[in-house]
Amino acid sequence: MAALSRVTVTADSSFWCVLCAVNLYCDNLLLHLNILGVLLWSSDICCSLSCSIDKQQHSKDSVFFRDGRRRVDFVLSYVDDKDGERKQERRKVYEANLENVGLELETEDKSESEDGKTSFVKIHAPWEVLATYADVLKIKVPFKVNDIPDNKDTPMNWLSTPFRLPDHIMHPEPDYFTAPFNKSKSDFFLIDNQETFFPPSTRNRIVYYILSRCSYLKDECPDKDKKGIKRLLNNGTYTAAFPLHDSRYWTRSRDPNCESERYNLYKHWARFFCFFKEQPLDLVRKYYGEKIGIYFAWLGFYTEMLFFAAVVGTICFIYGFLTYDDNQWSKEICSEAIGGNIVMCPLCDKKCGYWKLITTCNSSWQSHLFDNVATVFFAIFMGIWVTLFLEFWKRRQARLEYEWDLVDFEEEQQQLQLRPEYETKCSKRKLNRITQEMEPYLPITSKCARLCLSGATVLFWISLIIACIIGVIAYRLAVYAAFASIMKDSPTAHLQVVGPLITPQLATSVTASCINFVIIMILNLMYEKVAIWITDMEIPKTHLEYENKLTVKMFLFQFVNYYSSCFYVAFFKGKFVGYPGNYIYMFGEWSKLRNEECDPGGCLIELTTQLVIVMTGKQVWGNIQEALVPWLRNWWGSRKARSHPESLYSRWEQDYDLQVFGQLGLFQEYLEMVIQFGFITLFVASFPLAPLLALFNNIIEVRVDSWKLTTQFRRPVAAKAHSIGAWQEILNGMAILSVVTNAFIVAFTSDMIPRLVYMYAYQPDGEMNMKGYINNSLSVFNISEFPEANSPEDGENPFWYRDYRYPPGHQKQYTHTMQFWHILAAKLAFIIIMEHVVFLVKFFVAWMIPDVPSDVRARIKRERYLVQEYLHDYEVERLKNQLSQNANDCTCAPMIYPSLPKHEVLSECL
């Protein structure tokens, strides 16, 4: 019969007419056979054919039952296997219990499916069920059109017209005042059509709430904890549970009753060529729910704010480029008279020879692009920008909370929902003071033991990261000598353009950064599984607790993994090197791994190199992985279905072949963006173009995430969320830390402070310029005092090194000069002043900008007032009707209706 149904769809119209005639004939034959008393035989034959044809007459791309009226709110799928009897019994009881609570089910047999193995159970929630659980969940619904004038008109509003979407996409519905639904007062709300009153996202949320609490054991069984679709998915009773997309993403549904919102999202949101358009957040929220909507709202707002940081950063970079020729210290380094005559001490033992300062000419010019006066300004600007970003996001979030009816939303219900894994692994029970029911709990001894083991595992992995970073540092120290000896007579040195740029320092820095990036990616893949295993081992009680625990572990690991190499270059490299004749070694003198020195131009250019490689590599790899991997999996999974007509490939089968958007889907997206946020805030003083790179990445990221969610994943269950959750506190912490790190980068990694001290205090001619700075910043060493173990080839005195120490022959030879201590004091003073100034401005800005806009606050108060007023009037009117009916039923004298005063609570609302 399945084969016959496949043939009928591909046949021509004449054959279709024949089949319709056969169907009619079967109906007449069935009637006559009933009269003759052979009902059983006839029904087995003709009903089978009739049902098959009815299914083909009904579009399989539809999201409705076969009757074309009842909407499919959820789909369950299963495959019979060896343990089929036990699972079949569970399904039978579970589906019977679902029907007992009012849900309507319709089954698609496996013979009708594409693979011939998977059966599908379609679920519809009728109005009575929706109304009951909307009352339980306190879902807000409209009761009055918003009467507050909308004053959103801004001057020069026409400039944003090219970036807007059509009004029917952005604002498909008028603005309403809303109140929690009450089934007993349904006529109080604006219900035009019961079938469309609750949007599909709300419907699937209600159905999932029922599925999560419905038992799969009979009522007489004592074990009441055997319930919930998650446990049935974990034990293999069902293979999938998901709501349906309403159409294919590239075309509208052939069923006129389907909204085709997925198609609208793909057309106006998920395509890359819409990158300059605003996001249809209301449609995203309506289709996917508030939790996903708030993520895309945050990502879009973050991208908009990055535009301003990118503009200022680009201006600072252009300033460095325009002042290229005013760089006096680089001119001295590149001068044959100065840099060509200064011979520097070797940068490594034995294999490295003496070298002339002029060889660092190109790196000095490159360093000036990022290490200039604008760097200080940009570091201060980014400290203020972070505060503005976080404060304005709070305002934007407050507006979304009101517009999306999340003002009074509490996560207590989510906190009270136990995880199925917690119920399974916790055998002991105690009384819950809130619900007054017995529930499983984890003994304190077991909990402490698991936490200790979890903490030890986290420390072990963080130690492993630090060990890998130390290994990369050892690589840098070991291969620098090799590069120095190899590149001494390298043919690349004779190249006109790139020859001078290829230096041992650059080769070491680039290769070490690439190796470090590969290690980061490998450790990420490993630790992601370890973090999930650790969190599962702790057995968190609720989903919210599980997500918070995993967030802390993953962020802590990612923080150390991504930023440790940058912290090393910024704050440790070149700071503990000693001086010629008394160098400091990484693992002691026996290791012969001498600590790295910075170039005469400073370590800032190396920090820039490290930041660009890690940040850019992560973003490119992340986008490729996010877009390519789901597409390849879906392409491989649906390879058989591509050879069949679309009319045979039902809506539930199409969605079943898509990837699962798991509970941690948004977690990975947030984590990726927060790590990027750290790159552009913690180390932005070393690379003003970092916000520009992040801006380009995020423009792509918005469309990649939306394309992936719309085309490659099943429709996730709608969930509510009034904020970005724990990520808000993480961003606040990184904002505070960024002020400290950028102050230290400017003070200790950049050469800004030593130059200013020289210009204002040590310039020999008393002029405000940098002439003579290079000679002043170098110290002299007598090579005859080199230990034989690390002495290079013979050379002529004097030899120079970068430090502020007394020359040989001085009574304090090789000790720090007074200028060194002046510079150190200036650096510490700069850190203190910059931190206090930026923090003062941050706190002032945060105090000046209220978290909730005044118009939103007024609307919230107005809505609460109207809810109380309308409910009061509604109750009074209902009481009058009730008293009127009672008066008609008795012969009593007509009573005078009392004039009921309004509730005093109304004044409190105002």
TrEMBL record:
Residues in Anoctamin transmembrane domain copies: 284-863
Matching InterPro entries: Anoct_dimer, Anoctamin, Anoctamin_TM
Claim: Electron transport is one of the keywords in the record: no
Transmembrane segment boundaries: 295-322, 373-393, 458-486, 506-527, 677-700, 730-749, 828-849
Its membrane topology: Multi-pass membrane protein
UniProt keyword terms in alphabetical order: Cell membrane, Glycoprotein, Membrane, Transmembrane, Transmembrane helix
Recorded GO MF terms: chloride channel activity; protein dimerization activity
Coarse class of the protein's main subcellular location: membrane
One GO location term (cellular component): plasma membrane
One Pfam family in the UniProt entry: Anoct_dimer
Top-level taxon of the source organism: Eukaryota
Coiled-coil region: none
Keyword Cytoplasm: no
Residue ranges of every copy of the Anoctamin dimerisation domain listed in the record: 64-281
Compartments (UniProt record): Cell membrane; Membrane
Similarity comment: family membership: Belongs to the anoctamin family.
Name of the protein in question: Anoctamin
Organism, scientific name: Takifugu rubripes (Japanese pufferfish)
Gene: ano5a
